[in-house]
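Backbone-to-sequence.
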């Protein structure tokens, strides 16, 4: 498995995975991913034998010394989950945020216990609740934050 910048030719696969991973919500389209790349956001793909099996994206904004980052998305093909790919993608996003000394924010479904545990393991804390954030399901989301330069844990992926 290798991480590298997300390729435009893989955006269709991203949209396919979105439909699988977020079927009860409003999954991102191929054009939504293209817009993210057009805006210059930091997107990575996880590849196994040249097949995209995961993706993650981060935006970084602000003036030097006052930067913020936001995790826009993170998804892993169900056939490749629980193998540490999501954690590797997250670590790469956090390393990029740390390069800019940026605090990091994200939203996560309140019922996604495994994602919440992963984020907490990497220094995120819950700072708020967004009621009916996800549509059309109306599921709530926690807003989570990680301070700037919190560092990426050096412990091994489990």
């Amino acid at each position: 498995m290798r991480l590298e910048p997300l390729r435009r030719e893989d955006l269709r696969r991203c949209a396919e995975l979105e439909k699988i991973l977020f079927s009860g919500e409003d999954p991102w389209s191929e054009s939504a991913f293209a817009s993210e790349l057009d805006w210059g956001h930091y997107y990575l793909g996880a590849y196994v034998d040249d097949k995209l099996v995961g993706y993650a994206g981060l935006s970084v904004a602000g003036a030097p010394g006052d930067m913020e980052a936001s995790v826009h998305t993170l998804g892993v093909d169900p056939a490749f989950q629980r193998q540490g790919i999501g954690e590797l993608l997250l670590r790469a996003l956090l390393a990029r945020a740390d390069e800019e000394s940026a605090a990091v924010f994200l939203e996560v479904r309140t019922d996604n216990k495994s994602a919440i545990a992963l984020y907490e393991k990497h220094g995120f804390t819950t700072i708020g609740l967004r009621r009916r954030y996800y549509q059309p399901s109306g599921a709530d989301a926690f807003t989570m934050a990680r301070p700037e330069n919190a560092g990426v844990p050096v412990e091994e992926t489990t």
